[in-house]
Design goal:
Elements: H1 6-18, H2 28-34, E1 38-43, E2 51-56, H3 60-66, H4 75-85, E3 90-94, H5 100-108, E4 113-117, H6 121-133, E5 140-143, E6 146-148, E7 152-158, E8 181-189, H7 193-199, E9 213-218, H8 224-229, H9 232-238, E10 241-245, H10 249-256, E11 264-269, E12 274-276, H11 279-285, E13 289-293, H12 300-307, E14 310-311
Parallel strand pairs: 3-4, 3-9, 4-5, 6-8, 9-10, 12-14
Antiparallel strand pairs: 1-2, 7-8, 10-13, 11-12, 11-13
Helix pairs in contact: 4-5, 4-12
Length: 318
Amino acid sequence: MRPDSALLRLDAANQRVLAGDLERSLTLTQKIAQYPYYGFVEIRIPGALPFLMFSNNDDIVAQHFLYDERPGFETASLRLWVALARRAHGVFDVGAFTGIYALAACSANPHVSVWAFEPSGNTYNRFVTNIWVNQYDRSVAPLQLALGDRAMKTTIRHPFGIYVLGSGESLMASVVMNPWYEEEAEVLAADALEAERQKAPRRFIIDRPIAEVNLVKLDVEGFEPNVLDGMRALRAAHSPSMIIECLTLNAFEQVRSRVEADYQHWFIDDDALELHRDVERFARSGHRNVLFVHPSRVDLKAVCEAAGLFVSRAGRPG
């Protein structure tokens, strides 16, 4: 192979990034632009085994780990997720993107079953690559569809171009008002999934009934209330712990109004590694993930201790 080959140049650039030979004062965006990386990234989350994600210099989630960006990607949320996944049987990752939550659940618990929903074709294909390289294909069912309140066809609105993975895309016109392009998506209600699986089992990848789902991650850019409306029977049967993205205080109120009164909610501060109840702090912080947990099902104190998180009751409760 000639020393000026494209493959050798790419490998040399990748090795520089892996060695950490970067200007530390740069922002994450500047590091991505000045030190591009094309290849697999090792993901390490406390409480879970390391796993791999592929980045074509385009996966912002993997890039947080690659460039050792502080405080990291959803650090407290992922630690909490791993601690909950270690005792889970069935998991839903709704809005999976390239799969970090689904992969983290498998790396924390080899016996878990994960159903992960990602309707964007471009992003779904990357997610499948990540499942395959980690040999999680017997534990994770990647489903190229969206969850909602009923079965229907709809449109994914992509805010950026075709070379960008699907972060920020939405099924809601109010979230992405001027899409770069649109893509058709199928929507099903969570409560109808097992019936669908029995009709077309191969479509659901792993040969297991969708039964005891006791952990849910929900991040669908404003469509969360619709997903919850289609998940009433599942919640009534299993009271799953849920980490739900709420982009605004109003979005949080819409979500909370749909969750049963016997759930507790905790705002997750990913930078401070803390759970708190202060609604004003949540509103001004920019942190978006909220834990909804059934206290009779989960010992939150023990979970947070295992995850290395603090629990604060200061401030005005939300």
